[in-house]
Write a structure and sequence with these properties.
Keywords: Kinase, Transferase. The protein is an alpha+beta fold. The protein has 10 helices and 7 strands. The strands form 2 sheets. The protein has a 5-stranded mixed sheet, with helices on one face. Strands 1-3 form a two-stranded antiparallel sheet.
Length: about 350
């Protein structure tokens, strides 16, 4: 690194080095004319003196350059007026106006970033409060629908419950999306009964499944896994919702949920015979905002599978997927074995 700095300094000061060398050659020529009998001694003295002077100059330049670079980095990290003054003291006056302008711009951008952070934190706080507040009317809506079911027609009940499920799903996505940027999220890993968990999820989506005319096929050969139940419920729920959303109206709608054991752990696979995904779109299905080729899905946010991928990464859940256009979509969740 020091050798590289030395070569950089030589390259940066090549003009001055050339002038010094030419000057030395000129004085050597004068010495040869004036004192031919002592010419060799004069040449040695002049060369030695020039090397010593140039060496001292280069050391000073390198030290000054290193300090300037350090203060530049300090100013970039913290563009305070104090760091700006330190940099000005080491820089030539010809550079002062550029440094002052740079410091002013950096402080302006820093203030804008801090203001944006404050606004973002305020927005997150508002969204968290809103999510918790909106859950109260959703719960009330659920209570009314469950207890006044006999007082309304079956068709109206299904439509209202369908709307409730959609609202609740959107609220859950907002809540999980808002938590992604948090510094800490609590996970409670425990032994989970897959049959019970999946049964509860399907029960909550029952009206939606009936309205869409979907057949559910369960093949759970592995009943228990070790994971965080709350987040796992959200992951499974989002995958099923995604399958429901992208049904193929020309087929008999089917969602198959299977589980089993493999050498390194356990798997849970959710497959459908829906629209599927174009091969060119498969690398992007977990990107935020990606909705695929289906032009009828303009209202889709493209957030569900993005959240699934993010949470799976944090919980060390393996994720595999495959799809074929008009043939269906498959997602596999892979859980490691935990030694008891």
């Amino acid at each position: 690194m020091k050798i590289n700095r030395l070569f950089e300094s030589i390259r940066d000061n090549l003009l001055w080095i050339t002038i010094i060398v030419i000057t030395n050659l000129f004085f050597i020529f004068l010495g040869w004319i004036s004192y031919p009998e002592n010419f060799v001694e004069l040449v040695y003295v002049m060369i030695l003196f020039s090397i010593i002077v140039m060496g001292i100059v280069f050391v000073v330049i390198l030290m000054n350059k290193k300090k300037v670079e350090e203060y530049y980095f300090q100013m970039l990290l913290n563009p305070s007026e104090e760091n700006e003054r330190k940099l000005l003291n080491l820089s030539p006056k010809s550079e002062w106006h550029r440094i002052i302008e740079l410091g002013s711009r950096l402080r302006e951008y820093r203030d804008k970033v801090e203001k944006s952070k404050e606004d973002l934190e305020g927005f997150k706080e508002f969204m968290e409060k809103w999510v918790h507040e909106i859950k109260t009317p959703i719960s009330l809506m659920t209570f009314v629908l469950d207890n006044r079911r006999d007082e309304i027609s079956q068709e109206v009940y299904k439509k209202l419950n369908y709307a409730r499920i959609s609202i609740d799903d959107n609220v859950e996505r907002i809540m999980y999306y808002g938590r992604l940027g948090g510094d800490h999220r609590d996970y409670r890993f425990e032994r989970i009964d897959l049959k019970t968990t999946i049964g509860d999820i399907l029960k909550g989506l029952n009206e939606l499944i009936e309205v869409k005319g979907i057949n559910i096929r369960l093949n759970l050969n592995c009943e228990y896994i070790f994971s965080d139940e709350k987040n796992l419920r959200f992951i499974i729920h989002q995958i099923i919702i995604n399958s429901i959303k992208y049904l193929n109206k020309e087929n008999e709608n089917l969602i198959e949920i299977s589980s089993g054991e493999f050498e390194e752990g356990y798997y849970l696979k959710i497959e459908d015979n829906g629209q599927g995904v174009l091969e060119s779109d498969i690398p992007f299905i977990f990107d935020k905002g990606f909705t695929g080729y289906d032009l009828n899905q303009k209202k889709s946010t493209g957030i569900g599978l993005y959240l699934v991928k993010r949470i799976c990464d944090e919980m060390n859940i393996g994720l595999e997927w495959s799809s074929e256009k008009d043939r269906g979509f498959s997602i596999g969740l892979y859980f490691p074995k935990i030694d008891k």
